[in-house]
Each structure stands twice: as C-alpha cells, then as structure tokens.
Amino acid sequence: MAKKKRALITGISGQDGSYLAELLFDKGYDVYGLLRRTSAGPPPYIEDLHLAKKLSYVYGNVRDLSTVRMVMEEVRPDEVYNLAAQSHVWVSFKVPDETWDTNYYGVGRVVNEAMRVNKDVRIYQASTSEMFGATLPPQNERSPFAPVSPYAESKLKAHEEFIVGYREKYGLFAASGILFNHESPRRGKHFVTRKITHSLAKIKLGLQEKLLLGNLEAKRDWGYAGDYVEVMRLILQQQKPHDYVIATGETRTVRDFVDAAATALDMHITWKGKGKSEVGRDTGGKVIIAVDPEFYRPHEVHQLLGDARKARRELGWKPKVSFDQLVEMMVKSDYDALKHQTS
Ligand code: F7E
Asked: Residue 19 Cα, ligand 1 centroid: separation in angstroms?
C-alpha cells in the first residue's frame, strides 16, 4: 500500500484552512494543522474535524521559530500549505510590524524549517491579488505587481524571496496561488462580505438598526473559498512548481454585494447621495446602510479582476459556485444561525 501523504496546514483556523483540511482528509492525507492559540479556542468546524480524527492540530505560531522547528520535526510533512497570515488589509496599516513578522518572516521560518527536515517537501504559499494593488485589471501572472498596503508589500516580498527565489536558488518545489478574494459562511465578520451578510440578516430580524461601511465603489473579484482550496492541492501535484492566478473573471462593487445580499433576503435597497453622504434605504424609507470613513483605507485597491486562464489550461480548474450562489449561501447561513439563536 502506498504511504499516506502528510500535509501540514498553517493558519488552520481560518476559513481556507478548514476547507482545505476537509478536502485533504477526503483525498487520503494525514492532515496536521498549526493552530494559533486564542482565548476563544479553535472554531467549531476545526474542533469537529479534530474530534472526528480527520485533523491533528499542534499549537504554534509562525512568528515563533522554536515552535515552527518543533512542528516540522514532529510532522515531517510531504506538503506544507502556508495559509497563516495577518490577512486583514485595513488592519495591516495599524499593525505593520506584526504584519511583516507573520507574512514575510513567518514564511521564511516555515520554508527554511520545512526544507531542513525534508529537502523534497512541496510548499504552497497563499499569495494574493492584493500584490497587484494599483495595476489596472484584468490581472494575470504577467501583470506587474504594485502593492499599496503593508499587507500586500509583505506578501509580495515573501513571494519573491521564499517562493520564486528559493525555487530558482535551491530547486525547491515552492509555488504560490495568487488568489483573488474568496469568501464563505466561515469568513471572518470583519471582512466586507461577511460583515454585509451578517448585518443584513440581523437587520432583517430586527436585531440591528444600521450597517456602516467604508468605500462602496471598490471592485472585487469574489469567488467561493471551497472552490479555491481545490486548486491549492492541484498546484502541489504538478510536475513542476508554478504560480497561478485564481479568480472568477467577474468583478463587482461593494454596493453590488449589498444589493445581492438584500435580494437574497427579500429586501430592497434604494441608494441616494455620493461618497461619505451616500445612504441605502429600505422600502419603508429607513436608512439601513450608511458610510463611515473610519472604514476607508489610507490607500485603496480600487479594482481587482483576475484572469485565471493559466489555471484553467494547466490545472483544469474553474470555479463551480457563482456569485449569486455564494451570496445566497452566506446570507442563508447567517440568517438561519441568528434565527436559531433567537428562537
Ligand atoms: O475588503 C471595502 C474595502 O476587507 C474588500 C483578504 O482576504 O482579499 C481580502 O482583502 C473591499 C475593500 O477584503 C468595508 O475598502 C468597504 O476595497 O473584505 P475586505 P480585501 O481587503 O479585499 C484579499 C485577496 C486578501 O488577500 C486579503 O487577505 O471592501 N470595504 N467597506 C470594506 N472592507 C471592510 N473590511 N469593512 C468595511 O466596512
């Protein structure tokens, strides 16, 4: 019988970590997760995987070399999926040091230690469309990078040095997925999509008055996280390591996302005003959406729209869940959970 592959996922408690762990277990891997301790403990879907013996987790943090070293020695992974990150762009302007320590130095710790215990290790790095920053769409693997936040700068430097650089210098099997925004019911509530679906569900149930947002004009290429984790595994099964843009090829504004979420809840919003004075009213004329400049970023990425033809051609990958299905899935999950809590 062929030996089971061992995968180590850093950032296991994020939405991607949990979907990827489920997928790898189903594909017959032994799955290990590096879990950052928080006072709230691991999210329920991670606990469930652990209790079902589909996932073993080890406490640690990519900011701490000694734990990274110990975990690599203990697990000796064949494949490493480095998903750990300070992943919030707005927050990265507030905590640039922490962002760099996790998103750049952290990658160095993971890659160096993984190589040290297994020179044939394969490493997937969660790179990001934010690296394109100010570059106009559509963005693909040949587009220039132009990062505009500490988050994007740290991610780009890690990609260049530890993924492209180590591939060239040491022949390491290291590859980046340059993922555009990907969402799900497990998305944190401080990202705009989940903030919208959770707040609108609360408004619908009479549990919240108003939703405050930042830039409604920003355009994003939003896909479903469950589709995107499939590509992470595929990237590591290729003969040679390559970087891939992963996206849906459709772009929408934040306002469009609000409209789609409202529609999924049988609500209708009428927009009035511009910039900081723009508001959204419900059918009774009540303001339920307003702009709070607190959520503006010092430097915004205005438009992202990915061209994922290389992934389609070489990996046979394409997204399965449409934008409307994604929004509906997120809205329904929030609405049902809130309804359950209040009944
Ligand atoms: O913002 C605008 C905001 O925080 C999306 C991360 O996974 O995807 C994500 O980064 C847009 C931005 O995601 C609010 O200005 C308006 O234009 O949901 P977000 P993000 O910054 O695009 C990339 C690919 C990653 O790699 C990142 O790790 O929405 N926006 N009003 C708002 N954003 C937030 N968070 N909150 C608002 O109230």
From this structure: 20
